Amino acid sequence: MQHTFPTQDAQTLIRLALDEDIRTGDWTSLWTLPANQIQTAILTAKEDGVVAGMPVIELVFDELKCNYKGSDVKIKIFAKDGDSVKTGDKIAEITGETKTLLSGERVMLNFLQQLSGVASITNMFATALKSGKTKVLDTRKTIPGFRTLQKYAVLVGGGSNHRMGLWDMILVKDNHIAASGGVLKAFEAVKRQNTQNLKVEIEVERLEQLKLLLGQGVDRIMLDNMDNETMKEAIRIVRKNNDPAELEASGNMTLERAKEIADMGLDFISVGALTHSVKALDISMKIRTTQ
After folding, report:
1. In 3D, which of 187, 184, 183 has the Cα closest to residue 198?
2. Domain with CATH 3.90.1170.20 in the chain
3. Is 106 an active-site residue?
4. Residue tagged active-site, from 83, 205, 224, 267
5. Which is the catalytic residue, given 15, 65, 135, 141?
């Protein structure tokens, strides 16, 4: 399945990253490397995982050429976004002036490693859930400014996206409920004002709250921080009452737990760790002389 890479957002972030890194000049490369030296850089996976963010390679070197006097480069891609790679697999080759390759190295790798890390952990969760219908969702716990890229990487890894932000879906959480006087009052207030017909999800922490929402027309109910037995009972209650609401579980969603609840009948689990504390996939860049 093809997913659209957020090129415009990536370009904005790449400009910021290169300005942060280069500023007045990459003096180490400029002062140590022969003028016009041409070499090839090899990108290699240093651990198993799923690749995401490969379009960043071309975008980084385009920006270097336009604004930092970088040379033209030739790029050969050996692994596309969504491909699984093994330790030692060659991901790409980039040929150009050595100083250009080294000026772009860190920014390029920072993007590739972070996004590939997101795709890799997402794929682990998607694999753990394969025996059932449950899909893994991301959250809004993203690096500021990187949300569209991280959510793209989730899709590449086999997951699904929750709402993009506060603007495209209603999610009534515990603080909304406490401040508005309860789950029903919160939902009724949303229904009165939801002229945009946004999808509405309500978070519940107790079965008593869940029962109040039955038959009310809630699109999705989030079972927050419930243990497995309580979640099973929540699912039974909703299905017994023929309520069509989707069910999402959230809170302490580890890989081990995902395997345990894969066959419960949940529609979704949401996992903040896909983006907020992801381990970058180890990818290296090494120079190979061509002339």
Report:
1. 187
2. 7-120+279-289
3. yes
4. 224
5. 141
Average pLDDT over residues 255-259: 94
Q: Tell me, what DSSP letter sits at residue 160? A: B
pLDDT digits (tens, 9 = 90+) for 205-245: 999 999 999 999 999 999 999 999 999 999 999 999 999 99
CATH superfamily label, 127-276: Aldolase class I (3.20.20.70)
Q: Would residue 134 be called left, alpha or beta, if left means φ above 0 and alpha means ψ between -120 and 50 degrees?
A: beta
User: Residue 34 in contact with residue 56, Cβ under 8 Å?
Assistant: no
Give catalytic status of residue 203 as yes or no: yes
Q: Where in the chain is the domain with CATH 3.20.20.70?
A: 127-276
Residue pair 170/201 in contact by the 8 Å Cβ criterion: yes
Catalytic residue among 26, 63, 105, 203: 203
Q: Which residues pair with 248 in a beta bridge?
A: 222, 268
- In whole angstroms, give the CA distance from residue 74 to residue 72: 7
Distance of CA 217 to the CA centre of its chain: 30
- Of these residues, 15, 46, 65, 106, which one is catalytic? 106
CATH class of residue range 7-120+279-289: alpha beta
Q: What is the pLDDT of residue 289?
A: 65
| Mean pLDDT computed over 174-179 | 97
- For the stretch 271-285, pLDDT in tens is 999 999 999 999 999
Beta carbons of 53 and 115 less than 8 angstroms apart = yes
Catalytic residue among 173, 206, 211, 279: 173
Quote the tokens at residue 83. Answer: 């491909």
